[in-house]
Write a structure and sequence with these properties.
Blueprint (H helix, E strand, L loop, with lengths): L4 E2 L2 E10 L2 E8 L5 E7 L1 H4 L4 H13 L9 E7 L2 E7 L3 E3 H8 L4 H20 L12 E4 L4 E3 L4 H4 L20 H4 L6 H17 L9 H10 L5 H4 L5 H10 L11 H26 L1 H22 L2 H14 L3 H6 L2 H19 L6 H12 L5 H17 L1 H24 L14 H14 L3 H15 L6 H15 L10 H15 L3 H15 L6 H13 L11
Antiparallel strand pairs: 1-2, 2-3, 3-4, 4-6, 5-6, 7-8, 8-9
Helix pairs in contact: 4-7, 4-11, 7-10, 16-17, 17-18, 19-20, 19-21, 20-21, 22-23, 23-24
Length: about 550
């Protein structure tokens, strides 16, 4: 329900509402002054420590004076309701402007941003950080002047009960990475938020969006945005660079303060105009001809007005001595130099063009690469030499290339089955058999020979005689042969097993049968499928069976 009066202000209508409260258009009961009164929500008013923060921040904001900051007039409590009265701006927010126009042209964006920089500089010099800079806090009057509202108010509500699931201290689409991490906001945090606002005005959307607030905050911390010029190509390069620097993740990489930023923004229209003039001078022949005629006429007029015959003679003599030779004039001719450059480039291209190889030369070069260890050289041999031969004359070359192509295919097959050092570099198995082959290789690599052999033996039995798995059968046989070959190791890989069995023997002899049985159980569980540990496993099973069983405690009647 809309109140009729708050403090000394008569409420006429509601202007807007948000997470922190409701804003009303009102007039002072005595002076009739137009104001905007913001009433804090009841939930915020109950926040612990709010009153102290409210008084502290409001006092600081009352001393902040800048034509681009919404002036704070008054604050107080009326029947338990916290409010503050501020300057009323007859216009719209940048957020409303964007909803109507989708995007704002880059010249207007620069003009608005320079005004915001003025507001930020005044506040930062006074030690006040906005903490919640966003389009809805930027009010644009009907004469095009921008006013920044809610300056520093976010700090008032920064209580420990406010979380990202309720009222948010700051708006996630425009929040700096350091604020997303819960760190203290600084003036460079405001600059990041201003960069996000610039991006939104130019592109019609924030740099990062998402389905949840947490997702957007994570993007601010870790993701890279699309550069503004990739969305709106007509944005000047210099403005694109300014926005990207403002949105740097590390605060030290952003502009040092709002004043330096305003200077960079004001330079951009001048740079664009200079670039346009330079392009006109370079591309407009009529303009160049007129400029030359005007310069010559001016020089002639000066000679007539203030010259003498002797001066003209001396000048003629000097010009004669400095007049270039025919070769010099030729070298000063732009078209001549362009022609020479074209000829040089054409000659270079001719001499550097790839030499056309005969079929036998291609085959020889491919064979030479196949002599290298299996690797990228084999792929080059196939793609650059063997396949072109097969496509050009299959009857002649397919038979000669068959063995090499089979070797390359087997290499690619084995490479695909390799576990890989990094997960992102691994290729996904194409079917079940490749998945089991990779699993067997994994167990082989970690020394679990028993499990690897069980998988390979089962696969061998399943695919035996099936022609569609002939290539896989070769790989299965190869891996089984590797498993059956005794490892050539300089260190004893079963030191743990031997040490454990020795300690179990000692414990059993000392009468500590429970601890000995625990060790034998561990040996059986870990080494049961390892053929190279079969002897010790059998001994552990036998000793466990012969060992006295622990006595059960008597039942309590």
């Amino acid at each position: 329900m809309q109140p009729s009066r708050i403090g000394p202000y008569l409420i006429e209508r509601k202007i807007g509402a948000g997470g922190m409260g409701t804003v009303y258009y009102a007039r002072h009961a005595e002076s009739g002054q137009e104001v905007a009164v913001k009433v804090l929500s009841a939930s915020l008013a109950r926040e612990e420590g709010l009153i102290a923060r409210f008084d502290r921040e409001i006092t600081a904001l009352k001393n902040l004076s800048n034509p681009h900051v919404v002036e704070l007039y008054d604050s107080g409590i009326d029947d338990g309701t916290y409010y503050y009265a501020m300057e009323y701006v007859d216009g719209e927010t940048v957020s409303q402007w964007l909803m109507r126009e989708k995007r704002i042209d880059w010249l207007t964006v620069i003009n608005l941003s320079v005004q915001v920089c003025s507001a930020l500089k005044s506040a930062h010099d006074a030690g006040i950080i906005h903490r919640d800079l966003k389009p809805s806090n930027l009010l644009v009057s009907k004469d095009g002047q921008i006013k920044l509202a809610d300056f520093g108010i976010a700090q008032i509500f920064a209580g420990r009960k406010l979380t990202m699931t309720g009222d948010v201290v700051g708006t996630v689409e425009f929040m700096s990475p350091e604020q997303a991490q819960g760190q203290r906001a600084t003036k460079k945090s405001d600059l990041y938020s201003l960069g996000a606002v610039l991006y939104t005005m130019l592109c019609g959307r924030p740099p990062f969006t998402g389905r949840t607030a947490v997702e957007i905050l994570q993007k601010h911390r870790f993701n890279q945005f699309d550069r503004p010029r990739t969305i709106v190509p007509e944005i000047p390069l210099w403005l694109d660079e300014v926005v990207c620097q403002l949105l740097e993740k590390e605060p030290d990489k952003r502009y040092p303060d709002a004043y330096v930023l305003s200077l960079r923004l004001q330079e951009i229209p001048k740079k664009v105009e200079l670039a346009r003039i330079e392009q006109t001078l370079t591309l407009d022949p009529e303009f160049r001809a007129n400029a030359t005629t005007i310069a010559a006429s001016a020089q002639f007029q000066a000679a007539q007005d203030g010259g003498t015959l002797m001066r003209d003679l001396l000048r003629s003599e000097i010009d004669q001595k400095h007049r270039p030779s025919p070769v010099g004039r030729l070298l000063d001719n732009t078209w001549f130099l362009i022609t020479v450059l074209v000829l040089v480039i054409a000659g270079g291209v001719y001499w550097m063009r790839p030499k056309t190889l005969s079929f036998e030369e291609r085959f020889s070069m491919g064979e030479k690469l196949m002599q290298e260890p299996a690797g990228a050289h084999w792929i080059t041999a196939r793609d650059n030499y063997f396949l072109p031969l097969s496509e050009a004359d299959p009857k002649t070359w397919d038979a000669r290339l068959e063995d090499y192509l089979d070797q390359i295919e087997q290499y690619e097959f084995e490479k695909r089955l390799a576990p890989g050092k990094l997960l992102r570099n691994r290729q996904s198995p194409r079917n079940d058999i490749e998945r089991f082959l990779r699993l067997a290789q994994h167990y082989h690599d970690i020394g679990d020979i028993g499990r690897a052999m069980t998988i390979l033996s089962s696969l061998d039995a399943m695919v035996a005689g099936d022609p569609q798995y002939s290539q896989h059968q070769q790989q299965i046989k190869k891996q089984i042969a590797e498993l059956e070959t005794p490892p050539n190791k300089t260190t004893d890989s079963y030191q743990l097993l031997k040490s454990a069995m020795t300690r179990a023997d000692q414990l059993s002899q000392a009468g500590e049968h429970d601890r000995a049985q625990q060790i034998w159980n561990g040996v059986i569980a870990l080494y049961d499928t390892d053929p190279q540990a079969a002897g010790e496993v059998r001994r552990a099973v036998s000793l466990h069976a012969k060992s006295p069983k622990p006595k059960q405690p008597p039942e309590v009647p």
